[in-house]
Amino acid sequence: MLQANKIGVHGKETSNPHTAITGATGNGKSFLTKLLFTYHSLLKAKVLYVDPKAEMRTQYLSVLADLEEKGESEELQEYIRSIRFITLDMRKEENRGVLDPFSFLEDEGELTELATVLVASVLDKDTYIKIKPYLLDSLDKVIECRKAGKKVGMLQVFDELEKSSKEEVSTAGYLLKRISKNSLLSLCFADGSQEVLKTDDKTIIVEITGLDMPEGTDKDEMTETQLRSLTVMYALTYFCAIFGEREKDKETMLYLDEAWQIMSTPAGRQVVNRVKRTGRSFNNFLVLITQSVKDLKTSDDTTGFGTVFAFPENTETEAILEHLRVENDDASRAWLENQTMGQCIYYDTFGRKERITVDGTIFPEFLPLFETVKSDLVSVQ
């Protein structure tokens, strides 16, 4: 996959670095995804995995505890310990502020852009327009404090707003501080005292929990929790974009599991499209995982995917064949629909479209990491 954007590779038909993994649940999509993630995280590439199902951290740490107890596989233990796990759960104090713009952005322009967007997302439009000049001034002051070596975050920005002699600005500052306390917004707005999320961590798994993503785009129909969930998701997707744009000469990989959750929001689509457009020049490889092949296209982006793993989804046979540019006839439909568990159509950067079987790993000790189904029932054979 990492050769996708490289030049001089004989026979390669595309330099598109991005990969899509699609198909119904239960056919092997998750196993393949985690297999690819694990293999690539062992290389020199930096890898970020967004886990909306919040299953990987628990499974990985469970395997680690078991290995430690048995005194087995020191190499695998060390690998698991090397992963930075982040949980977007405001109930855990150590995660508060993990997506604060001051926690992962050094560039002042990027920091100001994200900070203003986040504030705009939680205030009504009229209030935001009135306080924006004062917000920018407050950001400048707090940025200067950071340059002086102080630990700062968005709460210090709100403190500055609250000091304003203008009542509407002061009230907005107090409101922003108040709604950030013990809420989802505490993930984005903090005081800088917590351990920060760094884009130079080699392997990061971010799990999402407690978010209530809206289905529509009309803010008037959204609950406060949904509006705050959008704010958190925008901060996360912005971090994902920045993660892949730091060093152009080093490969980075971004795995977006259950991508429909991000692609369902305008802000999410905007950042994903940004990653797709800049991927080749920044050596950033997007791996997008979703059930529906229809999630791979948006009206405001024509960038496709150079590599596709298409697991069967019988309600979308025609759409899958169209996406793979395969003739829609009886033979093609049977070729796609008659696959067994673990089989998918693999479309690679050389233009080949073949049915393959994903069967295990060359490192059997990795297999427990990929288990996602928990049950107290005992199988009967």
Characterize this entry briefly.
With 381 residues, this protein is an alpha/beta fold. The chain has 13 helices and nine strands.
Describe this structure in words.
- This protein is about 40% helix and about 10% strand.
- By secondary structure, the chain is an alpha/beta fold.
- The protein has two domains: about 20-90 and about 200-370, P-loop containing nucleotide triphosphate hydrolases (Rossmann fold), CATH 3.40.50.300; about 110-185, no CATH class.
- A nine-stranded mixed β-sheet has the order 3-4-2-5-6-1-7-8-9.
- A hairpin with a 5-residue loop joins strand 8 (about 345) and strand 9 (about 355).
- Mean pLDDT is about 85; it is low at about 375-380.
Question: How are the SSEs ordered, and which strands pair?
Answer:
Elements (H helix, E strand, L loop, with lengths): L18 E4 L6 H13 L4 E6 L4 H15 L3 H8 L2 E5 L12 H4 L3 H15 L2 H23 L6 H9 L4 H14 L22 E6 L15 H20 L8 E5 L3 H4 L2 H17 L1 E7 L16 E4 L6 H8 L5 H8 L5 E5 L5 E5 L24
- Spatial strand order of the main sheet: 3-4-2-5-6-1-7-8-9
CATH homologous superfamily designation of the largest domain = P-loop containing nucleotide triphosphate hydrolases
- Helix and strand content put the structural class at alpha/beta
| H/E series | EHEHHEHHHHHEHEHHEEHHEE
Helix content: 40-55%
Q: Given this structure, which CATH class of the largest domain is correct?
A: Alpha Beta
Number of separate structural domains: 2
Would you identify the CATH architecture of the largest domain?
3-Layer(aba) Sandwich
Mean of the pLDDT scores? Answer: 87
How far from one another are the termini?
Answer: 38 Å
**CATH third-tier fold name of the largest domain:** Rossmann fold
Topology, number of strands: 9
Characterize the main sheet. Answer: 9 strands, mixed
Low-confidence segments, given as residue ranges, are 377-381
Radius of gyration: 22 Å
DSSP summary: helix tally: 13
What best-fitting shape do the alpha-carbon axes yield?
globular
Strand content: 5-15%
